[in-house]
Backbone:
């Protein structure tokens, strides 16, 4: 044992002497993970930190650093970067100049360039949490959430209760629609720093999106104790009041915020969303003026554009409505930094990894409730079908479960033994989620639409699983996605008509692949057929599920469960025809993109 310790210590010392600081740090940390009390390893790690901090390279004179900061203070970031580049040629090993250069590129919105330099800084000084934080922030803005997560986790390895890193990890999970995980990180950030208002606001938002209005209200109260004039918290207080049924008090609160700051984006979003627009409504002019304010940016601006688009749509003004939807989507696409090649790569990897069915995992012991998967493109009718199925007394509603997406986010699709490595734990965790939702019922629905990507995994986990795939006129589906303002960034392809058409074909190709691998095992439900002949289709569906017939399935509008997705208002109505034609009044604006779609004949 002593020989093993000595060998690792010698290895770390040799690495440090050769300048391989990251490798030396990793060796010391490996040793400390096994022997936490080892004094020589602790001393070696501390010495390494000092070496990295003090002897990476010769630094420039203070006068030059002062000149660079003067340019920064004057707002001359481009000039600062130019001078930093020249100075780095003279002082190539200067950490200070490298950091100034990175900060300048960040200020100029060169996210990729800044990330590259921050990555260099983390390699040169892996003991500095700020470098990892800045790297993570740039990666977030580039939409590289997995890499950002790695950067923030490196901070926690150095400082386990760093509240900013915890908050940022919550942001990563939030972007990926992992509400449970984001909630845990935000709560940890608040516990680590109770006065950290940004983390509390993020916690409020996540609680609201999880339907926890009372808990969100408690957090808002805490923020307002810390900062009574915080307009974000005051706006959240209004939202909480609305969720609790006091719409009048909510609107009074919003008016109070707007009296202080007339163009405050979050409050305007709430006001617009609660305003009943009429033809030639003067409030349109008020909002047009507000949108000229350059301080209304990002999601706040996008939210207002989408809301105004819906208002124009309801007033049958498609040209004006489309202009709002287009602007809102353009903003959101810029925010998520999405390119269709990201999904093309993922889909190709999944298909290659499942060129043929993978063996089923060993059978579980004491199984519990079984899942019923309802999947397909978003806005294709999955919520309605869940209402139908969960009207049956043997089926509990699960809604859109994120478990599979979370567990497979970093899965190596090329690894032939990958499922054997992660499968048992992921399946067991998923089964626990089902148990928490089932009550005494033997089945639970999972209507996460994008689970269509994971049918191969589903069949390996649950060989007898029932899978319902929704088909619908793609023009209706894609238009419904495009003009819907999704709360999260999970549907990043949604913000460009050409991306939507490309994604539709990725979906179609993927489903053809799964149907070839698992013939006759997926129930293909045509939405238009459901609305034309509901009883025939529903009886066929219930028969496929192996459930005894129940008349309640014909009356999904009477199902008392609360749908939480964007289709919640529609499913309160009896099944009706015609919703697939809503896109047609926008034909002049979408026909160029939609001309690439196949002729729709499934009815």
Residues:
């Amino acid at each position: 044992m002593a020989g093993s310790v000595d060998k690792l210590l010698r290895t770390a010392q040799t690495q440090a002497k050769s300048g391989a600081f990251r490798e030396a740090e990793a060796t010391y940390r490996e040793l400390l993970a096994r022997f936490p009390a080892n004094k020589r390893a602790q001393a070696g790690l501390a010495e390494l930190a000092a070496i990295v901090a003090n002897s990476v390279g010769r630094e420039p004179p203070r006068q030059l650093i002062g000149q660079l900061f003067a340019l920064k203070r004057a707002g001359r970031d481009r000039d600062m970067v130019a001078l930093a580049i020249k100075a780095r040629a003279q002082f190539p090993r200067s950490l200070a100049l490298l950091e100034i250069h990175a900060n300048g590129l960040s200020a100029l919105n060169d996210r990729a360039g800044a990330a590259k330099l921050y990555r260099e800084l983390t390699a040169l000084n892996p003991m500095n949490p700020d470098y990892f934080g800045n790297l993570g922030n740039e990666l977030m803005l580039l939409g590289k959430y997995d890499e950002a997560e790695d950067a923030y986790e490196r901070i926690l390895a150095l400082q386990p209760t760093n509240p900013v890193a915890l908050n940022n990890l919550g942001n990563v999970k939030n972007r990926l629609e992992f509400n449970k995980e984001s909630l845990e990180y935000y709560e940890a950030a608040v516990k680590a720093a109770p006065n950290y208002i940004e983390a509390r606001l993020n916690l409020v938002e996540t609680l609201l999106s999880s339907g926890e209005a009372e808990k969100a209200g408690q957090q808002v109260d805490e923020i307002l104790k810390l900062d009574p004039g915080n307009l974000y918290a005051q706006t959240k207080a209004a939202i909480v009041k609305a969720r609790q049924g006091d719409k009048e008090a909510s609107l009074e609160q919003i008016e109070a915020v707007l009296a202080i700051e007339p163009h405050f984006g979050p409050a305007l979003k709430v006001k617009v969303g609660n305003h009943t627009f009429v033809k030639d409504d003067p409030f349109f002019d008020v909002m047009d003026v507000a949108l000229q304010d350059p301080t209304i940016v990002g999601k706040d601006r996008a939210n207002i554009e989408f809301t105004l688009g819906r208002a124009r749509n309801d007033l049958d003004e498609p040209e004006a409505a489309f202009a709002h939807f287009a602007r809102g989507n353009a903003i959101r696409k810029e925010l998520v930094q999405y390119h269709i090649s990201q999904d093309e790569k993922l889909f190709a990897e999944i298909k290659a990894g499942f060129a043929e069915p993978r063996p089923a995992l060993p059978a579980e012991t004491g199984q519990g409730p079984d899942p019923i998967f309802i999947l397909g493109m978003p806005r294709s009718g999955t919520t309605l079908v869940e209402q139908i199925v969960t009207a049956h007394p043997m089926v509990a509603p699960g809604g859109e479960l994120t478990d599979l997406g979370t567990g497979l986010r970093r899965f190596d699709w090329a690894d032939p033994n990958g499922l054997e490595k992660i499968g048992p734990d992921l399946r067991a965790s998923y089964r626990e989620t089902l148990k928490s939702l089932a009550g005494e019922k033997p089945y639970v629905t999972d209507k996460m639409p994008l689970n269509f990507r994971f049918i191969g995994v589903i069949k390996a986990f649950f060989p007898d699983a029932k899978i319902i795939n929704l088909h619908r006129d793609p023009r209706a589906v894609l238009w419904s996605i495009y003009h819907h303002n999704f709360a999260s960034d999970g549907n990043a392809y949604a913000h460009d008509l050409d991306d939507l058409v490309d994604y539709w074909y990725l979906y179609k190709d993927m489903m053809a692949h799964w149907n070839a691998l698992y013939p006759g095992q997926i129930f293909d439900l045509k939405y238009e057929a459901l609305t034309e002949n509901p009883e025939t289709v529903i009886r066929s569906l219930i028969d496929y599920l192996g459930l005894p017939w129940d008349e309640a399935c014909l009356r999904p509008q009477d199902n008392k469960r609360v749908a939480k997705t964007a289709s919640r208002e529609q499913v309160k109505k009896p099944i009706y025809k015609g919703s697939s034609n809503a896109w047609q009044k926008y034909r002049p604006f979408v026909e160029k993109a939609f001309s690439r779609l196949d002729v729709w004949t499934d009815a």
